[in-house]
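Researcher: Good morning. I'm working through a list of sequences from a screen, and I'd like to move beyond sequence-only analysis. For each chain I'm collecting a predicted structure so we can compare shapes side by side. This is the next one on the list. No need for commentary yet; just the structure.
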Amino acid sequence: MKTFCKSFFISILLIFVISLFWGCGVNPKQIKRMQALEEGVSNPTTKEELKDAIQKYEHRVEDITSAAAQTGIWYKILASRYLDDGMYGEALKYYQKAIEYFPTNQNLYYWVGVCAGYMAKASLDYNGSGNFIQKENYLKLSESAYLRALELEPTYARAMYGLAILYVFDLNESEKAIPLLEKLLTIDTRNTDAMMVLANAYYQNYEFDKAVELYDKIISISTSPEKKAAAEANKKLVLEMAYGE
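Model: Good morning. Structure tokens for this chain:
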């Protein structure tokens, strides 16, 4: 019992002292010495001492890794809560924090792209200064996030679609959307939303026949009366532009 109380007291004392060290910017060597005191490991030399030290520190690393992973998960959950409430700036902040823990998670980059896109639309020139730097920065962030998601998962359909939307409607670079959407439609062949955006991109790049062909396909396969009507109206506009019909 005395041994337990002593160990417990040392652990509490170490936590307090280490927190003080971090606040004062102490040298990491000091923290290592405190950890060694807590674990009862100082300068192992024999094989047995080395094995014992490795075992003790392996447990510590496992605990730290587990705690870090859980923290990253909580950041993801918090970000999604803000996203559900339409608070895209807060969601963006916590998705970025989650990426610090999961830097190769393509879904996190996708959501950064989504949130940054929304924040770009909210970045108006409230002062009437003609300065749109904040909006441009959000758009660049959105683009880079989608590209990173696709770098991690080249067939990530949602990221392709999100990036294509950005190119067609926000960055005025519709030509970049065409290969993305053409690839997406080889994966999801009946995605009429992607077809609508691709037809728009074709139209903006004077590929009128391809646009008309896609609108016809949407009209034939879509079950949405609204989408059929939109495709018919857009087809009429393209034909008028191309042939004066």
